[in-house]
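pls design
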């Protein structure tokens, strides 16, 4: 079951106009919210980022946070898996094709659910491969926009190379991955690129930094150079759907020892513990 503009319907019955500005211009924003044991994970933070994205494209939020929660909970209840990820998508609506904003269009609101699959143990034990590429996206990568063509092409580069992710470099510095944030371990220090217009402020990124603070893992939020990623002991990727994963090969070369490192192992365990606490309902999220 999905939600589309006021109705809960099977996905096969969902229809939108070909004049929807999401279809014509990619004129919309989205969120991906993980659900564990039917509980929304970090919803407040996701809705906050959604508001920032809507402000970034000057589109009014069609729902209050309470309304969003209600809609999302109905979608969770009407889908099978206990662990799901919810995809929320808002476009500037249907209007005759003109780049400028329409005067009176109603935003299109779409929510769907998919099963949230945990990363296979074997993959966590070996780590994944990544490649690097020039970050050729626009200068507002903090907006979670549905116009994802650069990300699509950059992620396909990874797939074509038999890798899982493409690490993006802008003027010699790491921004993020094509679909994830990236952390670097250098000289036992966990390094995170600072939030800016050049990367998506990841919700999982925030969780990892909070865990680092709470558990005294030495860390710094600062620019990370290409040299540092190429000589790192560990590289980690984070996202709502992949949680935390170790990158053990970069552009065909081993990262550190070529095995997931100690900081990954520690953070992965802390993340699982944190999730378990949230699922037991001991933390309000
Ligand atoms: N993507 N950076 C980019 C470019 C992303 O697309 C994502 C997530 C992240 C990680 O953000 P978060 O931790 O809040 O999921 C960083 C989602 C999962 C997607 O597009 O499917």
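designed seq:
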């Amino acid at each position: 079951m999905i939600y589309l503009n006021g109705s809960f319907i099977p996905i096969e019955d969902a229809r939108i106009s070909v004049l929807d500005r999401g279809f014509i211009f990619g004129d919309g924003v989205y969120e991906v919210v993980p659900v564990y044991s039917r509980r929304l994970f970090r919803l407040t933070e996701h809705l906050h980022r959604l508001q920032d994205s809507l402000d970034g494209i000057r589109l009014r939020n069609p729902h209050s946070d309470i309304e969003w929660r209600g809609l999302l909970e109905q979608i969770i209840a009407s889908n099978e898996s206990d662990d799901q990820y919810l995809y929320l998508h808002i476009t500037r609506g249907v209007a005759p094709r003109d780049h400028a904003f329409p005067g009176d269009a109603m935003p299109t609101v779409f929510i769907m659910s998919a099963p949230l699959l945990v990363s296979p143990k074997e993959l966590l034990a070996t780590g994944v491969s990544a490649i690097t590429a020039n970050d050729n996206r626009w200068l507002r990568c903090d907006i979670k926009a549905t116009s994802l063509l650069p990300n699509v092409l950059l992620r396909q580069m990874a797939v074509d190379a038999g890798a899982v992710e493409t690490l993006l470099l802008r003027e010699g510095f790491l921004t993020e991955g094509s679909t994830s944030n990236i952390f670097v371990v250098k000289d036992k220090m966990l390094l995170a690129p600072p939030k800016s217009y050049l990367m998506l402020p990841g919700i999982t990124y925030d969780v990892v930094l909070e865990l680092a603070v709470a558990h005294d893992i030495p860390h710094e939020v600062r620019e990370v150079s290409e040299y540092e990623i190429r000589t790192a002991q560990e590289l980690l990727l984070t996202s709502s759907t992949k949680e935390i994963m170790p990158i053990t090969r970069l552009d065909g070369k081993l990262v550190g020892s070529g095995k997931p490192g100690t900081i990954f192992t520690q953070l992965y365990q802390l993340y699982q513990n944190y999730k378990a606490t949230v699922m037991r309902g001991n933390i309000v999220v």
